[in-house]
Amino acid sequence: MPIIIYNKMIKRKINIRIFAVFLCLLSAGRLSALDREIISGREDGWSGLTVREGITVVRGKFGLDDIILKDAEYSPDSSTDLLLHFNNKAEGDAAGRYNFKGANSVVSDSTYVLGGGSFAFLDLPNGEKVIPGNDALLSPGSKWGDFSIEFWIYPATMNDGESILSWSGAGWRNGKLFLQSIQCSFRKRRLVWDFKNIFSSPEKNKNLIELRGLTGLIPKQWSHHLLRFNSTNGLIEYQVDGRLEAVFYATVTGNENSTVLIPHIGNAAGGVLYIAGGYTGLIDEMRITRKFVTTPNLKRYYKRAGVGASRVFDLGYTGTTLKRIDVLYKNPSDSGVYFYYKVSDVLTNRMSLNGSWLQFVPGEEFKNTIKGRYVQIRMELFPDGTQMYSPAVSEIHIIYEPDLPPAPPSDFNAVAGDGEITLYWEAVNEQDVAGYLVYYGESPGNYMGTGAEEGDSPIDAGKVTKFTVSGLKNRKLYSFVVVAYDSSVPPHRSIFSSEITIRPSGIKK
């Protein structure tokens, strides 16, 4: 089975294929005077993601927050007894059954397997202390069923006696005190597991069970180690990187199909678990679980896709033209990332637009005219074939040309008549102008007028540049403005023209 090596210094030397739209050079040079831009993933740190399935956000190159696949780091469940991610000093036991501080070790955020770090140990005489709680497997009087112990190590020296795990305790049997211990340590560049007085039955107590690895380990290389016990048949297996290294049957006869010796912890004294006593190297992702683990996580990423969806972006106006979507991303090795969009003039749900997702190629101009006020982006991330590398998405730039409201009519004038006012204005020179609205009222700035024969304010004058408002009272002061509107649905309206205040003269024209 392949071994994962995640080392930032090594990663920089790997020749990866980068498919990215470098926005500082590309986008800025391709924006026309009318284009506008929305950026996601820079200042907002991807806080607006409405869907996060199998992805996470990490600090990437150039200080950007990158979306990458969530790795295969274990999560605690009801069977988890101990789970140490070794990502930082504050985490402790993710299962909450043990007290672990990691006070004497150092966090490495440059060399690790899963999560964001590992713990570096430098020949600590006793290692780090892990104190079992009352409901832990290593608490006094605990009786075990199936169990598994697994971890990743990156040894530097592998001197005989360097320990990965060490626990000792005591119990009573037939009125006599006996000592117990569990030890996993190096001998001749191999890990050896020793269980002393841990397995017993009513008929017999097995004094010592030993499982010794066959394969010599390589210094400064990550390897995964798994010891698992099946309480149904007494099978104990030790695996390294998924390869079987040792087998033992914890039974009365030492063979299959015999009475199984059940592991237990004596209640005479409470023991403490020590990690990395005298060990020099790194440790990552240590787990003890109350089940026989059949498929350990030996790859950094799962095969399944990770999915992220952005919030709904408001482009400001209906009928806005979506021109292209630029993305800054990279996909090392043969990992993959695919992008999709939705666009609509209607917003029925602030979290998601209606309709189907449409795939796009980042940086390419849309061949067909795509219009809408609201846009949403979706991305699918896939690991490479070895499941070692993930794509990383740093920024998304939405390039659009807003369908702005028309300019207001100019050269607005009026002529008074008998009970009427005739208005004149210069046509707005824009192709999509569909008509004009005439607003009127009985005081400056108040255009809520009523009573005109053509209707209450505003009156749709249609696509004309001359319009008469009749049915007005002579010698009464009226205020008028005119507004242009376009063919969008709903139409965009210009701001008000200049205001005219005028009184019908009473003189017939």
In words, what does this structure look like?
- With 509 residues, this protein is mainly β.
- The protein folds into three domains: 13-70 and 302-401, Jelly Rolls; 80-289, Sandwich (Jelly Rolls); 410-502, Sandwich (Immunoglobulin-like), CATH 2.60.40.
- It has two helices and 38 strands.
- The strands form nine sheets. Strands 6, 8, 10, 12, 18, 19, 20 and 23 form an eight-stranded antiparallel β-sheet that branches. A seven-stranded antiparallel β-sheet has the order 7-11-22-13-14-15-17, with no helix packed on it.
- A hairpin with a 4-residue loop joins strand 18 (223-230) and strand 19.
- The longest helix has 7 residues, at 23-29.
- It is rod-shaped, with a radius of gyration of 37 Å.
- Residues 1-28 have low confidence and may be disordered.
Main attributes?
single chain, 509 residues, mainly beta, Jelly Rolls, eight-stranded antiparallel sheet, 2 helices, 38 strands, 43% strand, rod-shaped, disordered N terminus
User: Under the CATH scheme, which architecture of the largest domain would be assigned?
Assistant: Sandwich
Distance between the termini: 98 Å
Work out the strand percent: 35-45%
What's the rounded overall pLDDT mean?
A: 90
Helical/strand content category: mainly beta
Instruction: Write down the overall geometry.
Output: rod-shaped
Question: Largest sheet at a glance?
Answer: 8 strands, antiparallel
Helix content: under 10%
Poorly predicted regions: 1-28
Number of domains: 3
Q: What is the tally of helical segments?
A: 2
Q: State the CATH topology of the largest domain.
A: Jelly Rolls
**CATH class of the largest domain, please?**
Mainly Beta
Taking all Cα atoms into account, the compactness measure Rg is: 37 Å
Total E-strand runs: 38
